[in-house]
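thought: fold this chain, then report.
action: predict
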Amino acid sequence: MEEFLKKEVPLVNKNRILDVHIGSRVSDHVFNTTISTPSVQAVIRMLTRDHKCKQHCSKEHVYVKRNEHIVLKNNEQDYVVHQSLHSEMFTNASCNVIKLIRGEYPIPSYSTYDNILYLEIVEYTVHNIMIKIALADDMYTISLRCAKPNKVATVLNLIQTIGACIK
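observation:
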């Protein structure tokens, strides 16, 4: 994982992000991102106790069609096309480098979507890294999103620390 992060972390920006999902590798092509409630509570305790962080809560409706995401948040609509550049799975983390394309296309109108998500989200910002804890259908997920260049050691330490809280 360290080699992957050394290569990708210095290149991130607001349009080329590193998205790391915490969970467990099931097989070579399957990664389980579901996190138990006690593990989420342990992560929140660790973040608030050990790090100076900002907290933000919100609700989102996400409509997904292929690689297109229409996000409704705080009565605002955002249309984003996700282009996956590079992905790798590790024991407790799935790392994805994503190019975000915003505002270049008109928002399409579809009659059906591949997936519709209703999310309750708590975001913690630590060292310019956004840690997103999302609740959807009584299942929690934890992801880290790096949208600004950061020290590789900081990102790796945060991933390992959060991974250690997961049971």
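thought: worth noting. The chain has one domain: 2-165.
final: tokens above.
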